[in-house]
Amino acid sequence: MTAMPDRIRSAYTAEMTAARDTTADNARWVHLERAHILSQPYPWPHTRNHVAMLALALRQHDRREALGQIVRIVVAAPGSLVGHYPEGNTGRTRAGLTTPMPLPSDLAALTGRADPTR
């Protein structure tokens, strides 16, 4: 298991902080999704991100999203530990548990990860 590089940790922390501090739920989701993409290779931040997603889903009374986040909390750390996670996936229930997704260009550049959908 590798440690999260400082540049990625800074971006992850900024996204998680922005998700916490914004008042608009749709903006919270955007920040949490971006934090998810950054955290996928790192077990604790990845799991922490899904816990934050679960909290938001519960706050919104979104049962489907909450159930999906519970499943993701269970599989996040093991998936990160073995390197088995869908690159670029936003972490939302609607995204599908194993569906790779395009990485936003700024996050692809920051992480050095290629777009898995190409």
The structure class reads mainly alpha
Count of helical segments? Answer: 5
Domains, number: 1
Helix content class: 55-70%
Average pLDDT score: 93
Backbone shape: globular
Which residue ranges are poorly predicted, with pLDDT under 50 across at least 5 consecutive positions?
A: none
Topology, number of strands: 0
Give a quick account of the main beta sheet: strands, pairing sense, barrel closure.
Answer: none
What is the end-to-end distance?
27 Å
Beta-strand portion reads under 5%
User: What is the CA-atom radius of gyration, in angstroms?
Assistant: 13 Å
* Element-by-element helix/strand order: HHHHH
Protein name: DUF3703 domain-containing protein
Region (Disordered): 82-118
InterPro entries: DUF3703
Pfam families: DUF3703
Q: What topology does this entry show?
A:
Layout (H helix, E strand, L loop, with lengths): L5 H16 L3 H15 L3 H17 L3 H20 L22 H7 L7
Helix pairs in contact: 1-2, 2-3, 3-4
Organism: Antrihabitans spumae
Protein name: DUF3703 domain-containing protein
Pfam families: DUF3703
